[in-house]
Amino acid sequence: MEERERVRQQRLLAEDFGLFFEETGHTRMDGRTAAWLLIADPPVQSLTDIADALGVSKAAVSAAARALLHAGMVERVSEPGRRGDSYRSLPGRLDRVLQLDHLQTLRRLVDRALGLVADKDQSQSNYALLHEMRDFLEFLQAEIPGLMARWQARRAPLPTAAIPGLDDIPNHGGTL
Question: Which domains does the chain have, with CATH numbers?
Answer without folding.
Answer: 3-90 (1.10.10.10), 101-155 (no CATH)
